[in-house]
C-alpha cells in the first residue's frame, strides 16, 4: 500500500489517502463535498480539489484526504497516477443507472488489476434516493462480483441528497486501510489465514507465562491490559470463557483459555466485523499490515565493508541448540518434517521451504535434519540475509536484544595481513565449465549419493555443512556453485569476490577442453581479484578421477600450478567416494587467506612495476635527503665563518654539536642499506 498504509505498517499515525473513481455522473463529487460540508451542494464542479475530512469524524482520529477524479479519456493518465498512490479506492456507480454497475466488473475492477493497484476497494452505490423500488437487493447484485474480485472489502449504498450513510462510506474505507480483512481472514473458507494463525499462536505463547498451554485468569487480564489498557473484571473473564466453551469445548480447560479457544475468539471478532480488536492485538506485539514484525522490532541497519560477513554469536547458537532439543520430540537427534514445521509455526512461514535454503543442508537416511544440519542452515541464512535470520530467531522465541544474535567479522584484508581468519563460517565459490562435476561436489558435501547423468545447473545453488577441525572444533563451510554462464554477469560487480573466502575450480580430469576452460576461469577470477584488491585463495579440483586423465594432464597442471604459485590440482572421484579430504583442505586454505593466492602474468608485471616505482621513489627520497643535509651543512659552515673569535670561544664552552658532514654520511649509509 502507498501513503498511509505503508506508514501504518510501523504503527505510526499518518494521513490516509482515499481515491474516488467511477463513471461520469455517478455522484462522486456530490458524495465527497456533502460528507465534508454536511450539506448537499447546489452546484458541484466537475472535479473537486483534494478534500480533507475532519479527524473527529472517525473513532481512530486518523486524518483522511479524499481525491476526486475524472473518468474522461483525456484525464486517464492522471487517473492512473492517483489510483496507484491510493491507500483505498472508492468505486461509485449510480443506483438509478444499472449500466454504471455493469461497468464495475467490465472496466473499473479489471483496470485496477491492470494498474496493479493492490489496495482495499469499497463499492458505493450513490443516488440511493433515485433507485427503483423494484430493483434487486444490493447483496444479490454484488455477491457474484465480490466472488470474482476478492479485493472488494465491502459494499454500501448511500444518498448525498438525503444524507443517507455518507460518513459510513469513508469510515469503511478508512477501516479497510487501518484494519484490513484480507491479511487476517479467508472470506471464501471463512477461516483465519495461516499467517494470522501463526502470529496469534506466537502471541499466545508469549502471554502463557507458566507454559501450561492455557491462559489463566491472571494471564488473560495481563493480556487485556497490555493490548487495551484496561483490566477485565472477573465476571467478564467468566463470560469470555463461557462463550468459547459453549461453541468449542476444547477451547477451555482446567487451566484456562487454550490456544484453540484463543484463535476461536479472534475468528469470532472478525466474523462480527470487529477487525480492529485483532489488529490492535497484533500491533501491540509489533506486527505490521503484512503480519510480519515491523522494522522497529528487528535489527537496525548493519554497517560493514563488502569483505566483512555476518555470523551468529555463541549466544544465538546456544539458543538454537536449546530450540532443537525442545522440538526433537522423539529424541532421535534429528528433526523430521512435522517437528520442523512445528518449530517454525510461530513464524510467518518456514523460511527454508524455498531456494536457496531448500535442500542446502545434509539430512539423514530418513530425510531428517540433524543438529549440525540445523545449525548449518541458520549459518547460511545469517550469511545471506542476516536481517531475515534474526527476524526468524525472534519468531521462534529469541528474547534478548536482536543485536546480540550476530557479529560482524573482521575484514578479509585484515585477516590476510594477520595470516589467519577468525571466522567460523566460510564461503567457497565453486567455478568450472559445464559437466565438470561441480554439482556432484556439492551433493557429496551434504551426503547425497552420486547420480549418473548430467543435469545442467541454471541458477546458483548452495550446499552447507560443518567441517571437523584438527583441534576438535567445528566450523561451517558454504559451497556456492556459480554456473559457467553466470560468471560474466557476476564479475560486472567490482565487489563480486568480496564475499568469497576461497574459490575452487573444478574440471573433468579426463578432458583437456575442461582443463583449459577451468584454467581460463582461474585466470579470469585471479585477474578480477588483483584489479579490485579482493584476491582470494584458490584451489584446483581434478574431478572424475575414476577416468584416465588426458595425455598431458600432469605436465599441464604442474606448469599452471608453478606459474601461478598455487597448489597442484586435487584429484577426487565423487562416483567412488574418494574425496581426498577436499573439504578439509578447502577449509584450511580459507583459514589462511594469505596463502594459495594465484598470480597472473599481469599481476606479476604490476608487482614488479610497483617495486621499481618504490625503489625509484626511494632514490628520489635519498636525493632530497642529500639536498636537505647539504643545505644544512652549508648553513652551519657559513655561520661558523661569520663567527667572531669571542663567539667561537663562548661556543667551545658549550656542549659540542655533531658534525653535519658525519650526519650526512651516516644518513646515506642507512638509506642504501634499506634499499
Automatic annotation (TrEMBL):
| SMART domains with a match to the protein in the record | EFh, RAB, RAS, RHO
Single GO molecular function:
GTPase activity
Q: Which locations, inside or outside the cell, does it occupy?
A: Mitochondrion outer membrane
List GO BP terms, alphabetically. Answer: mitochondrion organization
Q: Where is the Miro domain?
A: 13-179, 423-592
Is Metal-binding set as a keyword in this record? yes
Q: Where is the EF-hand domain?
A: 315-350
How is this protein positioned relative to the membrane? Single-pass type IV membrane protein
Q: Which GO terms describe its cellular component?
A: mitochondrial outer membrane
- EC number(s) from the headed UniProt entry: 3.6.5.-
**Keywords, alphabetical:** Calcium, GTP-binding, Hydrolase, Membrane, Metal-binding, Mitochondrion, Mitochondrion outer membrane, Nucleotide-binding, Repeat, Transmembrane, Transmembrane helix
Describe the family membership recorded for this protein in Swiss-Prot or TrEMBL. Answer: Belongs to the mitochondrial Rho GTPase family.
- What is this protein identified as? Mitochondrial Rho GTPase
Amino acid at each position: 500500500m502507498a501513503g498511509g498504509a505503508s506508514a501504518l505498517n510501523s504503527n505510526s499515525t499518518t494521513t490516509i489517502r482515499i481515491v474516488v473513481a467511477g463513471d461520469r455522473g455517478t455522484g462522486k463529487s456530490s458524495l465527497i463535498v456533502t460528507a465534508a460540508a454536511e450539506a448537499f451542494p447546489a452546484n458541484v464542479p466537475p472535479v473537486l480539489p483534494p478534500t480533507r475530512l475532519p479527524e473527529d469524524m472517525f473513532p481512530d482520529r486518523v486524518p483522511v484526504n479524499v481525491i476526486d477524479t475524472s473518468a474522461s479519456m483525456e484525464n486517464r493518465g492522471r487517473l492512473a497516477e492517483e489510483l496507484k498512490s491510493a491507500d483505498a479506492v472508492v468505486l461509485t456507480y449510480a443506483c438509478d443507472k444499472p449500466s454504471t454497475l455493469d461497468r464495475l466488473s467490465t472496466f473499473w475492477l479489471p483496470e485496477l488489476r491492470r494498474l496493479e493497484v493492490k489496495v482495499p476497494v469499497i463499492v458505493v452505490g450513490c443516488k440511493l434516493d433515485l433507485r427503483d423500488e423494484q430493483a434487486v437487493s444490493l447483496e444479490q447484485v454484488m455477491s457474484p462480483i465480490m466472488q470474482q474480485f476478492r479485493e472488494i472489502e465491502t459494499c454500501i449504498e448511500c444518498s448525498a441528497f438525503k444524507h443517507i450513510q455518507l460518513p459510513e462510506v469513508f469510515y469503511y474505507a478508512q477501516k479497510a486501510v487501518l484494519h484490513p480483512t484480507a491479511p487476517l481472514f479467508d472470506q471464501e473458507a471463512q477461516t483465519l489465514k495461516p499467517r494470522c494463525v501463526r502470529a496469534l499462536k506466537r502471541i499466545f505463547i508469549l502471554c502463557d507465562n507458566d507454559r501450561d498451554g492455557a491462559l489463566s485468569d491472571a494471564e488473560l487480564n495481563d493480556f487485556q491490559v497490555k493490548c487495551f489498557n484496561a483490566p477485565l473484571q472477573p465476571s467478564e473473564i467468566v463470560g469470555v470463557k463461557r462463550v468459547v466453551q459453549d461453541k468449542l469445548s476444547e477451547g477451555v480447560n482446567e487451566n484456562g483459555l487454550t490456544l484453540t479457544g484463543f484463535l476461536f475468539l479472534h475468528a469470532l471478532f472478525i466474523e462480527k466485523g470487529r477487525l480492529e480488536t485483532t489488529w490492535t492485538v497484533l500491533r501491540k506485539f509489533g506486527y505490521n499490515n503484512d503480519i510480519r514484525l515491523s522494522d522497529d522490532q528487528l535489527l537496525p541497519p548493519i554497517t560493514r565493508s563488502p569483505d566483512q560477513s555476518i555470523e551468529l554469536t555463541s549466544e544465538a547458537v546456544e539458543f538454537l541448540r536449546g530450540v532443537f532439543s525442545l522440538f526433537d520430540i522423539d529424541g532421535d537427534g534429528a528433526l523430521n518434517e512435522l517437528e520442523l514445521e512445528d518449530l517454525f509455526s510461530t513464524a510467518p512461514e518456514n523460511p527454508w521451504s524455498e531456494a536457496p535454503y531448500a535442500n542446502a543442508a545434509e539430512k539423514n537416511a530418513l530425510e531428517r535434519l540433524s543438529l549440525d544440519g540445523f545449525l548449518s542452515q541458520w549459518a547460511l541464512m545469517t550469511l545471506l540475509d542476516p536481517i531475515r535470520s534474526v527476524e526468524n530467531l525472534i519468531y521462534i522465541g529469541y528474547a534478548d536484544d536482536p543485536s546480540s544474535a550476530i557479529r560482524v567479522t573482521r575484514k578479509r584484508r585484515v585477516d590476510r595481513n594477520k595470516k589467519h581468519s577468525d571466522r567460523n563460517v566460510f564461503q567457497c565459490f565453486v567455478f568450472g565449465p559445464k559437466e565438470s562435476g561441480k554439482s556432484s561436489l556439492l551433493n557429496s558435501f551434504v551426503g547425497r549419493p552420486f547420480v549418473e547423468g548430467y543435469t545442467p545447473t541454471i541458477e546458483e545453488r548452495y550446499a552447507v555443512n560443518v567441517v571437523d577441525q584438527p583441534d576438535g572444533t567445528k566450523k561451517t563451510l558454504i559451497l556456492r556453485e556459480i554456473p559457467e554462464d553466470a560468471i560474466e554477469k557476476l564479475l560486472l560487480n567490482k565487489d563480486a569476490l568480496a564475499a568469497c573466502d576461497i574459490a575452487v575450480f573444478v574440471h573433468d580430469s579426463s578432458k583437456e577442453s575442461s582443463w583449459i576452460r577451468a584454467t581460463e576461469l582461474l585466470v579470469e577470477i585471479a585477474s578480477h581479484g588483483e584489479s579490485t584488491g579482493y584476491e582470494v585463495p584458490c584451489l584446483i579440483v581434478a574431478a572424475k578421477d575414476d577416468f584416465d586423465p588426458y595425455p598431458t594432464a600432469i605436465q599441464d597442471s604442474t606448469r599452471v600450478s608453478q606459474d601461478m604459485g598455487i597448489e597442484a590440482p586435487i584429484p577426487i572421484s565423487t562416483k567412488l567416494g574418494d574425496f581426498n579430504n577436499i573439504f578439509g583442505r578447502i577449509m584450511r586454505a580459507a583459514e589462511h587467506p594469505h596463502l594459495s593466492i594465484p598470480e597472473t602474468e599481469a599481476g606479476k608485471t604490476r608487482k614488479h612495476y610497483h617495486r621499481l616505482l618504490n625503489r625509484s621513489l626511494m632514490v628520489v627520497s635519498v636525493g632530497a635527503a642529500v639536498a636537505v643535509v647539504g643545505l644544512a651543512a652549508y648553513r652551519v659552515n657559513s655561520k661558523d665563518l661569520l663567527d667572531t673569535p669571542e663567539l667561537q670561544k663562548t661556543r667551545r664552552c658549550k656542549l659540542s654539536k655533531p658534525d653535519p658532514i658525519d650526519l650526512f654520511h651516516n644518513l646515506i649509509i642507512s638509506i642504501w642499506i634499506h634499499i
